[in-house]
Amino acid sequence: MAGRRVECLWKRHVVEQLKQRDRVQRQAFEEIIHQYNRLLEKSDLQVVFSERLQTEKYEQQNRHDLRCSWENFLHHVIELNNQIQQKDKEIQSNEAKMLEYQQQISRLEGECRELRNSLADLERANQTLRDEYDALQITFSALEEKLRKTTEDNQELVTRWMAEKAQEANKLNAENEKDSRRRQAKLQKELADAAKEPLPIDPDDDIEVLSEDAGKGTGETSPSRQTSRAPSRRVSQPPPPAGLLDSISNIFGRRRSANSFGSSPESAEVPSACADVRVPSTALHVFDAHDGEVNAVRFSPGSRLLATGGMDRRVKLWEVVSGRCEPKGALTGSNAGITSIEFDSAGSYLLAASNDFASRIWTVDDYRLRVSISLKTQLSFSGMKTVFAGSSCNDIVCTEQCVMSGHFDKKVRFWDIRAESIVHELELLGRITSLDLNHDRTELLSCSRDDLVKIIDLRSNAVRQTFNAQGFKCGSDFTRVTFSPDGSYVAAGSADGVLYIWNVLTGKLDKTLDKGHSSAINSVSWSPSGAYVASVEKGSKAVLWSDM
C-alpha cells in the first residue's frame, strides 16, 4: 500500500514538472506557434483560393469546352434534324412506293388467280378437245375406210359411166352417119332426077358444080361465088367412122390446117394478124352474159366471135360488131357449169370443160354437140392422153412437144409428150390458178393465190418477171389471166372487179380499169387482133374493153 502511494507521488511529481516545463517553454514558442498557426491558416486559405481559382479556371475551360461542344452538338443536331427530315421524306416516298407495289402485288395476284383459273379452264378444254380429237380420229379412220370403199365404188361407176358414154357417142356417131348417108342419098337422087330434066341454060348464068368434098363442110357457098339456081341444102358431115380419140386428135391437132376435115375454106375463120395491140381504156359494152356466174371467156382465132361459159351449163356465142357483142347462139348439152373454153385453130370447133368431169365439142356453124367424153377439167386442142398429175390440175397449156400444167400443190409441171413423163417441176408460192403462153411460146404466164402474176422463161424454166399491184387480189382458184397477142402486155382481173394491165417490157402497171364489173373477175381474154379485151365476173356480166 505504501509502495503504491510512493509510486503515485513520483508520477504526480513528474507530471507536474512536465506541466511546469510546458508552461515555461510554451510561452517562448506560443507566439511562433500562433504565427505558424496563422501561416497555416493563410496557407490553407491560399490553397482554398488556389483550388477555387483552379476550379473556376477549370469550370471556365469546361464552360468554353461545353459551349464549343454544345455548338458542335447543336450543329450536329441540326444536321441530324435535316437528315431526319430527308429520311422522313424517303420513308414517305418508300411508303408510297410500298403502297403502289402492294397494289401491283394485289393486281398481279388477281391476274395470277385469273390466269390459274384460265389455265384450269384451258386444261379442261384441252382435255375435252383431246377427247373429241380421239373420237374424231376414230370417226376419221372409219370415214377414211368408208371413203376408200366409196372411191373404189365410184371408180367402178365412173368406168361403167365412161363405157356407157362411149357407147352413146358411138350410137350418136352412127346415127349422124346414117342421117348423113340418107341425106346424101336423097341429094344424089334429087340431083339425078334433076339431071334427067332438060333445063334451059343462059350463057350469062354462073353455074356452080359441087364436089363431094365440098359437101362435107357446112354446105355454104363462098361469098365471092353466086349461083343462078336456088341455094343448095346445108349438109353437116360427121367425123369418119374411126376411133373416137383418133378422130378428135385428127380434128383438133394443134397443127390443124384451116381446111381440115369438118370445115370448108368458106366456113373456116381466118386467124387475125395482130398488127397493133391496143391497151384498152374504155368499157365499150357491159352486158348480162349468163344466168349466174360466168367462168370462162375466149375469142375465136379471127376475133369475130366471143364465147362465154357459165354456171347455167351453157356456152354462148357473141358476134363482135362495132364495139358491141350481139348474141349469135347457145351451145347446150352440158350437165354442169362450164369451167373452160377453147376454139380450134380454124375457129370451126369449140371445146368446153365442165364441172361434171366431162368435156364436149361443138361445131360452131350449126351449134351441134359432136363429142362428149369424160376427161380432165382443163383441155386444149392437142393429142389427148391420160396421165397421173400427182395433184389437182387447175389449168394446162400445150406446145408440140410439151404440156405445162398448173396445180393445187403450188407447182408448175412440165411433161414430155413423147415420154409421157414429168421432165421438170417449178414450185411457186401459191396455188396455181391459170397458165398462158405468149405468141412465140418462149414464155409461160402464171397466176397464183399469193396474188402474184409471173412470167416463166421456158428456155431456162425459171421465173423471169413478177407482177403485182396494190389492191390486186386473185379472186378464186380458177382466175384466168392472159398475154396480149404480141406478148407485150399482161391482163388480169382482181377480186374487187378491177382489170389490171402490166407492161411486160417495163414490168410496171400500165393501166387499171374499174368501171364495168361489180364482183370478182374470173377470166380475161385478149382478142387475137389485139383490138379488144373481154372479161367475165362471178356475177352474170361480161365486159368488152377497147381504146376506142
Short description, anyone?
This protein is of the alpha+beta class. The chain has helices at 2-196, 244-252, and strands spanning 282-288, 294-299, 305-310, 315-321, 324-331, 338-343, 349-354, 359-363, 368-373, 393-398, 402-407, 411-416, 421-427, 432-437, 443-448, 452-457, 462-467, 482-483, 489-493, 499-503, 509-513, 521-526, 533-537, 541-546.
The count of DSSP E runs of length 2 or more, i.e. the number of strands, is 24
Q: Which class of secondary structure composition applies to the elements?
A: alpha+beta
Based on CA atoms alone, the radius of gyration comes out at: 60 Å
Average pLDDT, to the nearest integer?
Answer: 81
Order of helices and strands: HHEEEEEEEEEEEEEEEEEEEEEEEE
Largest sheet, if any?
4 strands, antiparallel
Strand content: 25-35%
Shape: rod-shaped
The CATH C-level name of one domain is Mainly Beta
Strand neighbour order, sheet with most strands: 1-24-23-22
Q: In DSSP terms, counting alpha (H) and pi (I) runs of 4 or more, how many helices?
A: 2
What is the CATH superfamily classification of one domain?
YVTN repeat-like/Quinoprotein amine dehydrogenase
Low-confidence stretches: 203-267, 376-383
